[in-house]
Write a structure and sequence with these properties.
Distance between the termini: 52 Å
Number of strands: 48
Oligomer: single chain
Largest sheet: 16 strands, parallel
Radius of gyration: 25 Å
Strand content: 35-45%
């Protein structure tokens, strides 16, 4: 109400020719034609904000534009930060910040300082705001415990859209000591729900490209804390030195533990590749821990139709916090290949971590992960996994012939069936470890574990796996060999084709 009142008074004053100061600059809102405003490198903040008389700074536009308006940013380089603290509304529409036409609007952080955790574009406690079509780059620091972010959303709010932005070279390059590997952090996009019960909700992050990010112990694209209801779709996340996409809970981001989990979300149609901590100084003792897609304490979300390859880990669902669970996550119709440590990891990474509970891993194609040869296999079942369903997946081993590796006996109620396994050494050389017992050969594994009664051990006959084409040949034994339980398989395959044809379902990502 106060913001709308100030806008109304400013417009009224300008119509009367009186002028009204808002902050340190005048806001000639009523002079702009309709609900479109313009910013250009050759503009002036004393202009009217029209196409012929554009404003100069992004911040002036953010401070002046009312609900329902669109701020067009003309092509050029803007060595400025943008802090958005005004909201649109359901009745009047969002405030939209966008590039103009096909022009490239670059928000460049070269030489700008970083204070605490700070975004080049920052949205604080706002709703009905869209940010789209920008290139955001070169926001860097060499100071410990300062965190540069390309786009930073925090507090609470809803109906926020971040789309078609290119975010790169956001970096923290502080030199760490051998005794202290913390304090070197950055993000491409970070969404932190820091209030409770008010959440960040109805959030869409789509069509963005994030690359060449130096993240330290942080993530390329992260949703953390009280984030309830989101869609992360169609993004390219690649060539970064830590995790690609992360859904986080239990880090104390929200002030109430009951709300401190990213939840009720969809991660669909993203392509995530070449993300690794191999050369990251924050991980000197562990060079293979960057998940392409990671759920660390999140819940009630779907991860489907993604490609994850050439990362440390393809997809991981785990909890790093003892006594806390990642729960009710569905990993469905994804292609996961050539990742360094493993394809899919679940459970705590040691016995001091949390658990993975009531999750579903269904209709995925996993091909020759574990490329480092460490023996973690295609599915890495870690500490404390309970009541998870693993069905209709294709697992093709790397040169290690290891398909599943589970060294922990704290493993209860997990159901594996209707999967297809294939190892280069053949069925008799294929290797599984289950509840810390090793089995060589498919028959020995089934007999010893009771798993996979309806599963197959045979070549899946891909069209061209070496060329990245994991569609099935017409003679593939995976065709029509899956479980048809509609409660878990979903409606579409990775290509967007119907999952169920007649009464049959394929094993793997492709129908």
């Amino acid at each position: 109400m106060k913001k709308l009142g100030k806008i109304f008074l400013a417009g009224l004053a300008m119509v009367m020719g009186l002028g009204l100061a808002t902050g340190n600059v005048q806001s000639p809102i009523a002079s702009a034609a309709g609900t479109e405003y313009f910013v250009a490198t050759n503009g002036s903040d004393s202009n009217a904000g029209t196409s012929d008389a554009p404003w100069k700074t992004l911040q002036h536009a953010a401070d002046a534009a009312p609900a329902g308006s669109t701020v067009y940013v003309r092509g050029g380089v803007y060595n400025q930060k943008l802090k958005i603290t005004r909201s649109g509304s359901a009745s009047q529409g969002p405030i939209v910040f966008t590039n103009y036409g096909t022009e490239t609007a670059i928000i460049d952080g070269t030489g700008l300082s970083v204070s605490g955790t700070e975004g080049m574009i920052e949205l604080a406690n706002v709703s009905y705001v869209t940010v789209q079509g920008f290139e955001i780059r070169n926001f860097t620091t060499a100071s410990k415990n300062t965190v540069p972010v390309g786009i930073y959303v925090h507090g609470s709010g809803g109906f926020i859209k971040l789309s078609n932005n290119k975010i790169h070279d956001i970096k923290n390059t502080v030199t760490l000591t051998s005794k202290d590997l913390l304090g070197r952090d950055a993000h491409g996009i970070a969404v932190y729900g820091t209030k409770a019960p008010a959440s960040i909700h109805d959030l869409t992050i789509s069509g963005n490209e994030l690359y060449n990010l130096v993240l330290g112990s942080s993530e390329s694209l992260v949703l953390n804390g009280n984030v309830d209801g989101f869609a992360v779709t169609g993004n390219l996340v690649h060539d970064n030195d830590n995790i690609g996409i992360d859904l986080i809970g239990f880090e104390g981001t929200a002030p109430n533990t009951a709300y401190d989990q990213a939840r009720n979300g969809l991660v669909r149609g993203n392509r995530v590749y070449n993300n690794s901590v191999q050369n990251n100084p924050s991980y000197k003792s562990d060079g293979n821990s960057a998940g392409g897609i990671y759920v660390d304490g999140g819940k009630d979300s779907i991860i489907e139709q993604n490609y994850s390859y050439n990362n440390d880990i393809g997809i991981e669902i785990a909890s790093e916090h003892a006594g806390k669970a990642t729960s009710n996550i569905t990993i469905r119709s994804n292609v996961i290949y050539n990742n360094r440590l493993t394809g899919i990891a679940m459970g705590g990474y040691d016995d001091e971590r949390g658990s993975t509970v009531n999750c579903k891993i269904v209709n995925n194609t996993l091909y020759k992960n574990d490329i480092l040869g460490g023996g973690s296999g295609q599915l890495f079942v870690q500490y404390d996994t309970r009541s998870n369903v693993i069905k209709n997946n294709i697992f093709v081993a790397s040169s290690t012939d290891v398909l599943i590796y589970n060294e922990y006996s704290k493993n209860a109620g997990n159901v594996l069936d209707y999967n297809l396994y294939f190892a280069p050494g053949g069925s008799d050389e294929a290797n599984w470890t289950w509840k810390n017992k090793e089995y060589t050969g498919f028959s020995a594994y089934k007999k010893g574990t009771g798993n996979d009664a309806h599963s197959l051990s045979i070549n899946p006959e891909f069209v061209n796996a070496a060329g990245g084409n994991f569609h099935l040949q017409s003679s593939s034994p995976a065709i029509d060999a899956g479980d048809t339980d509609r409660a878990i398989i979903g409606t579409l395959d990775i290509d967007g084709k119907p999952r169920v044809k007649g009464a049959a379902v394929n094993i793997g990502a492709f129908e």
